[in-house]
Amino acid sequence: MAAIFAALLALPLGGARAAEQPAECPAMLIDAERLVLVLSPDLGSVAAAVQFYERANGKDWRPVGKPKSAVLGKNGMAWSYSSKLAPAGERVKTEGDGRSPAGFYPLGAPFGFGPSGPAGYVQLKPDEHHCVDDPASPHYNQIVAKSAAGGASGEDMGTVPLYRQGLFIDYPTGRAEKGGSCIFVHIWRRKGVGTAGCVALAERDVMEMQRWSAGHKTLIGILPQSGWEASRSCFPGL
Length: 238
Fold this sequence. Notes:
A hairpin with a 6-residue loop joins strand 1 (34-40) and strand 2 (47-54). This protein has three helices and 13 strands; from the N terminus they run H-E-E-E-E-E-E-E-E-E-E-E-E-H-E-H. By secondary structure, it is mainly beta.
């Protein structure tokens, strides 16, 4: 896995890095202390590798730990409607397409079924954490009590076994675009089996991510090789 991830990172940059952060870099990168990079060979790949990075005082990024295996949507990735990295003509994510949204997003709080966890932990409970996936609902891409959802379709998160450990991803709502909803990091069914659109890892790796990111401003990048090549200059040291 380490060799594969190193090969993915070793893409040519096509020139020297800019001295200052380019305009196309994600705005939330300015304050980010940590980065979870989820990298796949191309948009069609279900398999991905995950590497943690951190920086101090806004300086160069450095890897933390070893790469981890992950899976993406059962149909690979598609570019988020909100991503500025999407090349013209490439597939854009829509609700129910079975694809993970390519782009950069803030990594949110840890969650699970247990009564406690790392800083910011949310205990999921049946009927209390209903993630709405119906674009016709004003609660689209929001987590509300099932009683408040007005019958809108969604996931009763407290009853989904794969959510016994996970993290929220602060994925932007695109109701008009039907841009995708309920995007999380969670436990995989098993290696090689894709998700409905989330990022999934072995349970021990999800729990490590929870502990490592808790209390820190963390960014998650979900990218194919081409997206990493376009954005790598935003990350000095890599």
